[in-house]
Design a protein that fits this description.
Number of helices: 12
Radius of gyration: 16 Å
Largest sheet: none
Number of strands: 0
Oligomer: single chain
Structural class: mainly alpha
Length: 203
């Protein structure tokens, strides 16, 4: 599934991840599984985003969201929205989709899962980009609490620390600096570059 193959994209093995996404979507078509197709396209959009092809990711997002809306499966498209937040931030043509992400509530069931943590990270980054700093801080702090509870420290899976640091008020710059330093340290420990440790944050 996409969870198993996503690390290929995060670790720079884009061709392998793309092949896995293509196979997932082909299998979904054979089975007639709309949900399977949504998950395969989430992985494909992640690959495109990691390659910097936000236009291509936009096409995936638009196709999947339209399909999900037709089939009342927007929950099934949530993984794609979380993994494609860079495109939502950079492509104004996707503003209507960004609203969907911004207004998605964290259910008690989601609040115990990786998907819930990724939702909080993506929603927090989106809210920060719109100047809603307090709401962004709340989301990113909760994301960090979940990732810590999952014992997930690798920033390539969730660079929540640097995103949270950007959202913090100026009076908390010492705490923000500590979070950025910690993310850099963890990236180095995991053998990642600075760009992976501070992916897309500008920190």
């Amino acid at each position: 599934g996409p969870y198993a193959a996503a690390p290929l994209a995060w670790l720079g093995m884009a061709d392998d991840a793309s092949a896995a996404a293509d196979e997932m979507r082909a299998a979904a078509r054979r089975r007639g599984s709309v949900y399977g197709y949504l998950r395969g396209t989430a992985l494909h959009a992640l690959v495109l985003g990691r390659r910097g092809d936000l236009r291509g990711a936009e096409a995936d997002i638009r196709a999947v969201v339209d399909l999900a809306r037709e089939g009342d499966l927007l929950y099934g498209a949530l993984l794609l929205l979380c993994w494609s937040v860079d495109a939502l931030l950079e492509r104004p043509q996707l503003d209507d989709v960004a609203v969907t992400l911004d207004t998605t509530e964290l259910t008690p069931e989601l609040d115990k899962t990786y998907l819930g943590a990724w939702l909080l990270e993506a929603r927090g980054r989106l809210r920060l980009s719109r100047g809603r700093r307090e709401a962004a801080c709340t989301d990113l702090q909760r994301c960090g609490a979940l990732m810590t509870a999952f014992h997930t420290v690798n920033p390539i899976l969730s660079p929540w620390r640097s995103s949270y640091a950007l959202a913090m008020p100026h009076g908390e710059r010492a705490t923000a600096r500590r979070l950025v330093d910690e993310e850099l340290r963890l990236a180095h420990t995991q053998g990642l570059g600075i760009g992976d440790g501070l992916h897309h944050t500008g920190a």
